[in-house]
Amino acid sequence: MVDRASFDKGLIDLAAAAGAEIAQRTEVTGFTPRGDLWQVETNRGMFPARKVIIADGALGKTAARAGFKKKYGLDGWAMAYEMPQTTPRNEMVVDLGILPYGYTWLFPKGPSLSIGVGVAKKHDDHRKIFDTLALFADRQGVPFDRAQCRGQRIALWGGNQPLTLKDSFLLAGEAAALVDPLNAEGIRPAIKSGMAAGEAVDAALAGDADAFLRYQRNMWTQLGREFAIATRIVRFFFLFPALSYHTALFHPRATSIMNEVFVGSLAYSAITDKVFAVLRKKILGIG
């Protein structure tokens, strides 16, 4: 489980050590072309740039201000709170059957516990999400504190869409809806796309005219193809939730397989045929 405060600070420190200029609390308000440069307009003045990587998350406005059309990623939602551990717990708990198209979790984070709920589709009934999280917390024997809950929209991958514009702008991370539709995990895709975007900018500045389009193709194939498979699994799972849950629960390697998928050491494409074959047999009553 990632401690975002420590993780984000670590990224900032690494960037600063590598020579990046850090401008916090600086909102990009627009872009103006000036010859072969772009003047990046902000609430703290102008910054000249030849290339721009936009990575300001699902709710960011920078992509639209650069000229990208509205993203059409699938709307997800996550809500969570943290509390101190009174009795040390080392196990991770995930409940996949408590909410349609959603799951709840309890993760130890050092001296704290993270308790939350994620929904892999648009969900306007926030009261139901609160009630679900309260029910899960009660089942786990931990207090529920609604006042401490923090919620956010998640832009799940919804299919290939432009990730580059005007040979000057690249989208990365959740700004590109590069979020796994199955588990709503976005940090690993953000790191992968961020590193690839940096390499594309470096190549473009060195004269590689295809660098940005190659970045887009690579994200579509390396991440988008896997996310498309994850979307199929999500739809199948929630079409037959009891059967899918029962099958996964009693499969001898289900937990280890999902752990490998979540950390990126095993691709969805490596398991999808086997997963659907097992589930089809269960549906037909031949397995």
Entry summary:
This protein has helices at 4-17, 62-66, 126-139, 187-205, 211-239, 241-250, 254-263, 272-284; strands at residues 28-34, 37-42, 45-49, 52-54, 74-84, 93-95, 102-109, 112-119, 150-156, 164-165, 169-171.
List keywords for this structure.
five-stranded antiparallel sheet; D-Amino Acid Oxidase, Chain A, domain 2; 22% strand; alpha+beta; FAD/NAD(P)-binding domain; 3 domains; 11 strands; 287 residues; three-stranded antiparallel sheet
Topology:
Layout: H1 4-17, E1 28-34, E2 37-42, E3 45-49, E4 52-54, H2 62-66, E5 74-84, E6 93-95, E7 102-109, E8 112-119, H3 126-139, E9 150-156, E10 164-165, E11 169-171, H4 187-205, H5 211-239, H6 241-250, H7 254-263, H8 272-284
Parallel strand pairs: 4-11
Antiparallel strand pairs: 1-2, 2-3, 5-8, 5-9, 6-7, 7-8, 10-11
Helix pairs in contact: 4-5, 5-6
